[in-house]
Design brief:
By secondary structure, the protein is an alpha/beta fold. The protein has 17 helices and 18 strands. The protein is 40% helix and 20% strand.
Length: 492
């Protein structure tokens, strides 16, 4: 794949398996772009993939870098398996041609633990779970064990989930600066400062409307999560205004978990932390990503590693007893040794939970433009170190998700000491509890009693969210109907 603008042609003949075939390709070329067609005539250049379905015959043809094309064929009678099996053909050709063996094999979904949970709940023995998933997806034993451990640790919490209750997500989509790896719809404070008063006013109005729906349907709030962006980008008084709107419009008496992503250390002040604690949030995140100052400069952070440690110690001083810290494996210019030093230092600080993300190169991130430079970074070595290091210090994996374009096709894992697992993180991955989103770029996930899920997305940009607020609120009728229906679900 010769240039950043080049799009490798994928030709689909007799099928429409675009999504999974592209996902399979990205296991090997995670920053590449693709074009899709239905005829050989649409092939240009010396690289292509052809996926052909003719009755029960499947054929994959792959040509890379002008080398001879490789063709594989099989017969599959079951229509439901044709998509998976043609992806398997392409997967094996690419593995042989590139020398890459993705650790999660053919699995491209973002929730690998859900499959393990389902099998455990069906009383399938561990060895049979490993065999089934290995046979179908060719997952490495190491990743199977990680997924299994995660499932075992989150099952007791899933068994106590109240599907008649809901969680509340509050979006504050602003950051001091935009990190080079970031793909979230977040906005720098320099560009958003003029909109801030109007945004906070609109957000508080939405919280009032959602709160009224929750009260009228007699719905219990289970967890609350402030995310973004960086919620502590706003001033202490602005944060107080938003949190007081939550307190005013929702009954917090039965809330099991209230989290605020304090996030970037350069936004954390004693005043803001005291507001967070005073208004009921007991769990916060302090997210250094790395303690290496040189790497922090490369990714566009304005703080130092020392600032991160001071922010953590300040939160402890104020009385927070449930602190999470986020790290990222595979950041540009980070060495394996540097990552180990960061992780070891964070373990010494003794937070209640540590989340290890793997660098994901999204097209909307600045880093995507130089994505190929990150293909050879030591993310896998970093992740391999983190698993035993954390578990040997009492941090157990309790939730996991995967993303497209992640370096080395790795995963993001939350580790916590026993009793400090985040309910919200588990619920959003398991998709068995309704989550009401408020604010710009927030998403409401309605989970109906029959398992059907419907998503309602708020407008992505603050200006649009403010100007089209009334139109957005028209969508709340469906929220009311869903809450009426889940009200009678019996808690587990």
């Amino acid at each position: 794949m010769t240039s950043d603008n080049y799009k490798m042609p994928i030709i689909l003949v007799g099928n429409s398996f675009k999504y999974e075939i592209e996902a399979t390709m990205k296991l090997f070329f995670n920053t590449a772009r693709y074009s899709f067609g239905s005829s050989r005539d649409e092939i240009s250049g010396d690289e292509y993939v052809i996926a052909e379905v003719d009755g029960n015959k499947l054929k994959a043809e792959v040509r890379l870098k002008g080398e001879d094309a490789v063709i594989r064929e099989i017969s599959v009678d079951d229509d439901k398996n044709k998509e998976h099996e043609i992806c398997r053909l392409i997967y094996h050709i690419l593995s042989e041609k590139t020398g890459i063996t993705p650790p999660w094999g053919l699995m491209t979904g973002i929730r690998p633990v859900k499959k393990v949970v389902e099998l455990i709940r069906s009383d399938v023995p561990k060895e049979d779970i490993f065999r089934q998933l290995s046979d179908k997806y060719e997952i490495s034993p190491k990743k199977l064990q990680l997924a299994y451990d995660t499932a075992v640790n989150q099952l007791p919490i899933l068994d106590r989930i109240d599907s008649s209750a809901v969680s509340l997500y509050v979006s504050i989509p602003f950051c001091p600066t935009r990190c080079s790896y970031c793909s979230f719809v977040s906005h720098s404070m320099d560009s958003a400062i003029k909109l801030m008063p109007e945004y906070i006013d609109a957000l508080c109005r939405e919280l009032e409307i959602v709160g009224r729906i929750v009260r009228e349907t007699d719905t219990k709030i289970d967890t609350i999560y402030f995310g973004g962006g960086t919620p502590t980008s706003v001033s202490a008084q602005e944060l107080r205004t938003i949190m007081e709107a939550v307190e005013k419009n929702f009954d917090l008496a039965k809330v099991r978990e209230y989290s605020v992503e304090a996030g970037r250390p350069d936004t954390i002040t004693e005043e803001k932390l005291r507001v967070i604690k005073e208004l009921g949030a007991g769990r916060i995140s302090v997210n250094p990503q790395t303690l290496n100052d040189d790497v922090l400069k490369v990714i566009g952070r304005n703080h130092t590693g020392t600032d991160s440690i001071k922010a953590f110690e300040l939160a402890r001083k104020i009385g927070f007893t449930n602190i999470n810290t986020d790290l990222i494996a595979g950041l540009p210019t980070e060495s394996a040794e540097s990552f180990r030093n960061t992780l070891d230092r964070m373990i010494e600080l003794d937070p209640e939970s540590i989340t290890v993300h793997t660098l994901t190169i999204k097209r909307s991130a600045t880093l995507f433009e130089n994505g190929k430079a990150n293909i050879s970074n030591p993310a896998a070595e970093m992740v391999d170190y983190s698993i035993p290091a954390l578990m040997s210090h009492g941090y157990l994996p309790y939730y996991m998700y995967r993303q497209k374009n992640t370096v080395d096709n790795l995963e993001n894992v939350g580790y916590a000491k026993k009793g400090y697992e985040s309910y919200y993180n588990i619920f959003i991955m398991d998709e068995t509890q309704t989550i009401l989103g408020a604010g710009c770029a927030a998403s409401t996930k309605l989970v109906y009693p029959d398992g059907k899920i419907n998503r309602i997305h708020n407008y992505k940009f603050p200006y649009e969210y403010i100007k089209r607020f009334d139109q957005l609120m028209d969508k709340k009728e469906e929220v009311t109907e869903c809450l009426k229906r889940i009200k009678y679900i019996q808690p587990k």
